[in-house]
Design brief:
10 helices; single chain; alpha/beta; 6 strands; 226 residues; DNA polymerase, domain 1
Length: 226
């Protein structure tokens, strides 16, 4: 494949942050007076569904805890603050091959886009925490949940990316690390590479065009040309 654009579908494609997010949730729960603790196996299951606020609301109903909409928003906002602060202060290493991908994309004058339905605050934190290897200036387009009305697995954000870039689906390569986000790219008709993360490796990626443990392994395979 020789794409004209590389679409990074989540912050998890760029860096492993799931455990940072999990620990931040647990701290936010404690501060809110909740006795919830999301251990690793529980959080892996929760990641089968996108949307942190939706997860909180569903779990509140399941536990017969009447979390108000305001409480859900406040807990999620506190989680985001804690996680982003840690990422920005301590930094996060890029996943294997991401830096090489950026270099190759630039040399080949490919479009590079972040096409996510996470909050912009999370994207900004990753870009700050990964400097100088990666930064906002590396991207031609950054889309997040604030730009759309529906989150993944809906394809809206990918369709918007294609429109903004002026490209057809088969001219792009989407890289995703979760089953639900992969479904969004597939629904938009975009060729997909799945690079499962530490917390999503057990999910079903059978619908992806390619599945590799890392971007580096995909580049080494010769499946993509720059």
């Amino acid at each position: 494949m020789k794409p004209k654009a590389i679409l990074l579908g989540s912050i998890g494609v760029v860096a492993e942050t799931s455990d940072i997010q999990r620990r931040a949730y647990n701290t936010a729960f404690k501060e809110a007076g909740l006795d919830w603790v999301w251990e690793v196996p529980v959080y892996k299951d929760l990641l089968l569904q996108n949307g942190g606020r939706d997860r909180l609301a569903r779990l509140g109903q399941k536990a017969n805890i009447g979390l108000s909409d305001d409480a859900v928003v406040a807990i999620h906002a506190r989680k985001t603050e804690l996680a982003c602060d840690e990422i920005e202060k301590l930094g996060v290493p890029l996943r294997e091959g991401v830096d090489d991908l950026l270099v190759r994309a630039k040399k080949s004058a490919l479009f590079l886009a972040f096409v996510t339905t996470t909050y912009r605050r999370n994207i900004d934190a990753i870009l700050r925490g990964s400097q100088p290897q990666i930064g906002l200036a590396d991207f031609n387009l950054v889309l997040c949940t604030e730009d759309v009305t529906k989150t993944k697995p809906d394809s809206e954000v990918y369709e918007l990316a294609l429109k903004r870039l002026g490209l057809s689906a088969n001219e792009c390569l989407a890289i995703e690390d979760s089953e639900t986000s992969l479904a969004a790219a597939k629904s938009a008709g975009i060729p997909t590479l799945a690079t499962p993360g530490a917390f999503t490796a057990e999910q079903d990626f059978s619908s992806a065009d390619w599945v590799y443990p890392s971007v580096a392994a995909f580049i080494d395979s010769g499946e993509v040309q720059f």
